[in-house]
Write a structure and sequence with these properties.
Number of strands: 6
Oligomer: single chain
CATH superfamily: Tgt2/MlaC
Helix content: 40-55%
Shape: globular
CATH architecture: Roll
Structural class: alpha+beta
Mean pLDDT: 88
Strand content: 15-25%
């Protein structure tokens, strides 16, 4: 399941129990996800009044704080990234970031008592860390997310990949983007990603 699909499924959960605070995070990587989960909940609670554009504005800084978008974009594009001009690299990062924020803004549109439960047991993966969190409904339905984190140049732990049901979002994106990169190069992929973002923001 891709992040888009997982987020959509999570957003459709109906619930009627009070939200609970996420687990206290002492690890800095877990604390980053803790803060991001709380940002999502706050936007969900105001979702209908904000509208999709308002949710986008609220979530953009949260996504950019928690996610290493340049690294994620490079991974999503794949080996052809090295052949892309600096200007097109910058445009791809901008488009991929916009689409990522738009996906959250579109799908986390309301609140019905959901809660995030953060696993404080952070796993090490070489230089990276893996942080697990669940979105829980009152009927004991859960959606599991795992965030691969890496220490960024600004000294903060940031997301470099998201896994849902053990499937890498970036691997899925790379597969989705490969044919566009092969046929039309970076300009075509920029156009495609921006079109996907536009659709989410309607």
């Amino acid at each position: 399941m891709s992040l888009k699909s997982a987020v959509l499924a999570a957003a459709l959960i109906g619930a009627a129990v009070p939200a609970a605070a996420v687990a206290q995070a002492s690890d800095p990587a877990a604390a980053q996800i803790d803060a991001f989960d709380n940002s999502l909940l706050q936007v969900m609670k105001q979702g209908r009044s904000l509208g999709v554009q308002g949710r986008y504005r609220e979530l953009q800084p949260a996504v950019e704080r928690a996610f290493d978008m340049p690294t994620m974009t490079r991974f999503a594009v794949g080996p052809k990234w090295a052949t892309v001009s600096p200007a097109d690299q910058a445009a791809l990062i901008k488009a991929f970031t916009r689409y990522s924020v738009a996906t959250y803004a579109k799908n986390f549109d309301s609140y019905d008592g959901e809660k995030f439960v953060l696993d404080p047991n952070v796993q090490s993966r070489g230089p990276d860390k893996l942080v697990h969190t669940q979105l829980v409904s009152p009927h004991d339905k859960t959606h599991d997310f795992a965030y691969r984190m890496r220490l960024a140049s600004d000294g903060r732990w940031k997301v470099i990949d998201v896994y849902s049901d053990a499937i890498s979002e970036l691997a899925t994106s790379r597969s989705d983007y490969a044919s566009t990169m092969n046929s039309g190069g970076a300009p075509a992929l920029i156009q495609k990603i921006n079109a996907l973002a536009d659709k989410q923001l309607r």
